[in-house]
Amino acid sequence: MSRLIIEGGRPLEGSVRAGGAKNSVLPILAATIISGSESIIHNCPDLRDVHSAIAILRHLGCRVSQEGHTVTVDSAPMDRWDIPDHLMREMRSSVIFLGPILARCGKARMTFPGGCELGPRPIDLHLAALRKLGVAIQEEGGQITAWCEKPQGCDITLSLPSVGATENIMLFATACPGVTCIVNAAREPEIWDLQQFLQGIGASVSGAGHHDVRIGGQIALKKNTQHRVIADRIESATYLCACAAAGGKITVEDTEPSYFASVTQLLEESGCALQVGADRVTIQAPKRLRSVGPVRTMPYPGFPTDAQSPLMAAMCLAQGTTVFTENIFENRYRHCAELMRMGADIQVEGRLALVRGVDHLTGSAVKATDLRGGAAMVVAGLAAQGETSISEIDHIDRGYEKIEKAYAQLGACIRREE
Ligand code: EPZ
């Protein structure tokens, strides 16, 4: 099992480029099914989750090639509408293929996406919305079989602004006659990016990033489109938290600072000096971080749940106590036990985590409990005294491309041990 080995205590210096957004490219790769022609996706990060999505597309009969950060999908030869369990289990968010397969084939079969480290990950909102749009869905023995009985656009109000449900509705509604309006839609930048891609293949989608998203059905498909994926806001935020924790001064380039303003605001509150440019952020860490006001994870544009664990790793070293409330996922504090192995002082009570700052963290043998929990261990290892080894780093590779190379470029002493 490969591990990351980090010799901590070295301030970070230099600049690094943010890659394409994982949570944008996954729904966009699924959306390439709809066009029935060729889509060229630029700025596509080379991640395990991207490989999983490509495996699903190839299983469905699509022709896919990947050259560096460009992925080309030709969905014309698609000849299947089912996703087998072993491919569903590779990636929690594979349910995002349900909408586009239904839009293209009128039927779909897949197993229930596995839960994951963050909790059960239900898809009730996805299924309820598709049923309202005229899809018949059978759920039996962990298998979902769905077929279009009488697809018809309509208003769908989401009880919570689910990112995945918003995306699945947008993707399927492109095939429904009439207009679909998603009320209380998720407003994440990745929703906007998906809208841009769908417009590129001829769909009439508007309102992404706002409360309501409107989709006109039965689109006049355009052939052969190109799209550039937006920058990854969580990868960018992770770099900033790492510098805040380890010290030094870095610049994150090729990013969109407005996408993670809730994170930069808290880092300024903690004593970091930030310079925000059009496509870059420079951060200078203080001698010692100060604890920040309550950190509550919320739907965008609130503080992102995906940045909770990297920020917490930095706050373990702050002067004072920081209170975190995790409002999005049920079980997103698994990294706390690993941070405590390094000397962090954290008390978890349900959705609350009380983080009392300590003078230092001590390098230890720890594991990545999940994708962002693993990123938190890298942040902590960079700041700790001594050597940290992180196991189960497959979790990290799902969402961070060659993480050791990125941080070594910033002066960190970090290597991957196969
Ligand atoms: C997306 O997950 C992201 N994943 C997650 O990023 C991110 O944390 C999350 O949105 C919130 O921003 C991708 O985009 C691939 P949700 P998603 O549907 O779509 C509940 C990462 O680390 N819910 O907005 O699954 C759900 O249980 C990953 O990059 C229902 O109850 O998130 C959760 O508590 C982790 N029923 C809350 O809503 C449903 O039908 C938010 O989930 C759907 C969701």
Draw up the topology in text.
Layout: E1 3-7, E2 12-17, H1 22-35, E3 38-42, H2 48-59, E4 63-67, E5 70-74, E6 82-83, H3 85-88, H4 98-105, E7 107-111, H5 124-132, E8 135-140, E9 143-148, E10 155-157, H6 163-173, E11 179-183, H7 189-200, E12 204-206, E13 212-216, E14 225-228, H8 233-246, E15 248-253, H9 261-269, E16 273-276, E17 281-284, E18 295-296, H10 308-315, E19 321-325, H11 334-341, E20 345-349, E21 352-356, E22 365-367, H12 371-383, E23 387-391, H13 394-397, H14 403-408, E24 413-417
Parallel strand pairs: 2-15, 3-14, 6-7, 10-11, 18-19, 22-23
Antiparallel strand pairs: 1-23, 1-24, 3-5, 4-5, 7-9, 8-9, 11-13, 12-13, 15-17, 16-17, 19-21, 20-21
Helix pairs in contact: 1-2, 1-4, 1-7, 4-6, 5-6, 6-7, 8-10, 8-12, 10-12, 11-12
Residues 22-23, 26, 93, 121-126, 160, 162-165, 186, 305-306, 328-329, 371-372, 399 line the site of ligand EPZ.
What is the CATH class of the largest domain? Alpha Beta
Structural class: alpha/beta
Q: Which topology of the largest domain does CATH recognise?
A: UDP-n-acetylglucosamine1-carboxyvinyl-transferase, Chain
Q: Please report the distance between the alpha carbons of the first and last residues.
A: 6 Å
Proportion of beta-strand residues? 25-35%
Uncertain runs: none
The CATH architecture name of the largest domain reads Alpha-beta prism
Compute the gyration radius: what is it? 21 Å
Strand order of the largest sheet: 22-23-1-24
Can you summarize the main beta sheet? 4 strands, mixed
Rounded average pLDDT: 96
CATH-level-4 superfamily name of the largest domain: Enolpyruvate transferase domain
Shape: elongated
The total of helices stands at 14
Helix content: 25-40%
Return the domain count. Answer: 2
Q: Are any ligands bound, and if so which?
A: ligand EPZ
